[in-house]
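Hi D.,

Good news: the full-assembly prediction came through. Inputs first.
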Amino acid sequence: MDETYIQRVISGDINSFRYFVEKYKDLSYSVARSIIKSDFEAEEAVQDAFVNAFRNLHKFEKKSKFSTWLYKIVVNESLKRIKKKSLHYVDADASYVDQHQESLEISPIDSLHEEEQKEIINRVLDLLPSTESLLLRLYYLEENKMDEIKIITGLSVSNIKIILFRARKHFATGLEKSLKNELNSIL
Amino acid sequence: MNGDSMNLEQKFRKMIEKSILSVPDRNFEARVMEKLMLAHSVKLQRSKSLKLSWIFLALSTVLFPGGFLFFIKEANYSFTPYIDNALKTPIQVFIPAAVIIFAIIILIQVDNLLKLTFRQKSYY
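Then the structure:
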C-alpha cells in the first residue's frame, strides 16, 4: 500500500502524502517523544520529519520498509532539535538502575484502568534514558527487527541487544517504583 | 527462548503497546499538509524563475555581443577618421578585455544556473 502512495506523491499528487501523515503520525510522535522529553518539541520534530520525508521521497531506495526510512528521519530530526535547542538528552550509558538485578519481573498493572496504565507506562518510559525508551518503542511497537532498528538508530546489533536488555530491566524497576508510589498516594 | 522469557516478552509487548502517544495537536495533519503545499508552491515558483533565468541568459548571450559588435562596427566606421592614433591602442585593448570579461560573466552565470537546475531536479 505504501508503495502505491509513494508513486503517487512522486508523480506530483501531493495530497497522497496525507496517507503517510495519518498512518505514521502517532508512532512517529511516540518515537520522537522517546528522544525529546517535551511534547511541543517532539511534535515540531515530527512535523519537520514529514516535510523532510516529502522532499526526499524520490531518494527512498526501497531497500527497507518505508516506516524504517521515516523513523530514521524522525530520529535524526529529534536529535538535531535536541542539539539546536540544547535540550536535555540522556544517552543509554549515562544511567544505570539496579544493575545487580538478575531476574526480571514486571509488576502487574492489569488491575488499573486502561488510561491509568497508559499514563504510568509513559511516565516510566519518560524517566528512562532516551535511547532505552526509543529502543523499547521501536522493538515492541512496530515489531521492528534488529536490522531495521540498526538502520533507524545507527547502533550496532550487539549494542541494541545490550541496551534493550538494560532497558527492560530499567523499565521493570521503574514500573515497580511507580506502582508503589501510586499505591502509597492512594493509601 | 524458553516459555518464561517468551511470556515476559509478550508482557513487555502488551505493555509497550499501550505507550503509543497521540499527537497533541488535532490540526497536526492540516499543518503538515499546509507546509508541504507551501514547499510545493515554492518549488513551482523556483522552477518558473529558473526557466526565465535560462531564457534571459540565452538572450543576453546572443543580443549583448551582437549589439556590442554592431556598436563597435558603427563607431569604427563613424569615428575612426577623427580618433587620434594615441587612442587607438587603448581601444584595441579594451575590446578583447570586454569580450573576456563578458565571457567570464556568462560562464559564471551558466555554472550557477546549472547548479540550481540540478538542485531543483533532485528536490522530489
